[in-house]
Specification:
α2 crosses α3 and α4 runs parallel beside α5. It is globular, with a radius of gyration of 17 Å. The protein has eight helices and seven strands. The protein has two domains: 162 residues, 3-Layer(aba) Sandwich (Rossmann fold); 36 residues, no CATH class. By secondary structure, it is of the alpha/beta class. It binds BIS(adenosine)-5'-pentaphosphate (AP5). BIS(adenosine)-5'-pentaphosphate (AP5) binds next to α1, α2, α3, β6 and α8.
């Protein structure tokens, strides 16, 4: 099963991805995580991407093309994958179709997380992350037991550089302008499932689980 999860910044793509991967043995392909790792390691991709990401703008399509081709060439992809935060422009979606065709693969389902922009402010400004195990927290909605410390591995939590109001404004504008057309692109193929992402984590995941169990 090959899936794609799509939604505005803070809609819950990362949170739902963790739960989906736990239940359905898929490989996680998050372009955001891959780019952040590249920035951290100072690779050529990271150097190109850093400024765009800090401003909240999308990284150019050609940079994304290269990291996706490289990732899809790895063997673990054969077990099925979950794209998180990709494709984010219509160009990327068209490009992905071609890449998958050459690999004799296809996307089985696109999960679209629906949510109003207003709800996202608390989710984004309150988000804290564990840099070691990747656990996602929120100081308002899902605080760690001990402030600033990961419940799972005891590491000090961090805040993403782009998790501020100024970047969020740009990220939302990029989302509406460039990523919503991607949903329309997949609508034509009849594989989009819309999920209400405003509800609590368990309820949103229950809805996704029902959709995916129907595909298995
Ligand atoms: P990326 O890392 O993909 O970020 P994003 O799309 O802005 O999404 P987020 O990671 O901010 O949010 P999320 O939906 O995963 O929410 P989460 O589950 O953490 O991209 C970052 C940047 O990289 C982009 O701006 C761009 O520059 C670049 N980039 C990446 N991919 C690219 C591409 N393909 N092309 C071009 N550029 C690219 O949840 C958020 C918070 O809410 C958490 O605190 C969580 O605990 C809480 N929460 C989640 N769900 C719920 C719920 N149901 N109820 C209550 N709280 C919840």
């Amino acid at each position: 099963m090959n899936l794609l999860i799509i939604g505005a910044p803070g809609a819950g793509k990362g949170t739902m991805s963790e739960l989906i991967l736990d239940k359905f043995n898929l490989v996680h392909v998050s372009t955001g995580d891959m780019l952040r790792a590249a920035v951290k390691n100072g690779t050529p991709v990271g150097l190109k991407a850093q400024e765009y990401m800090n401003r909240g703008e999308l990284v150019p399509d050609e940079v994304i093309h290269d990291i996706i081709v490289e990732r899809l060439s790895q063997d673990d992809i054969e077990q099925g994958f979950l794209f998180d935060g990709y494709p984010r422009t219509k160009n990327q979606a068209v490009d992905l179709d071609e890449i998958l065709k050459s690999l004799n693969k296809k996307i089985d389902c696109v999960i679209n997380l629906n949510i109003e922009d207003e709800v996202l402010v608390k989710r984004i400004t309150g988000r804290r992350l564990c840099p070691e195990c990747g656990e996602i927290y929120n100081i308002y909605l899902k605080p760690s037991k001990k402030e600033g410390i990961c419940d799972k591995c005891g590491s000090e939590l961090i805040q993403r550089k782009d998790d501020n109001l100024e970047s969020l404004k740009v990220r939302l504008s990029e989302y509406h302008k460039n990523t919503q057309p991607v949903i329309e692109y997949y609508e034509k193929t009849g594989i989009v499932k819309h999920v209400d992402a405003t509800a609590g984590v368990d309820k949103v995941f229950d809805e996704i689980k029902t959709v995916l169990e129907g595909l298995c």
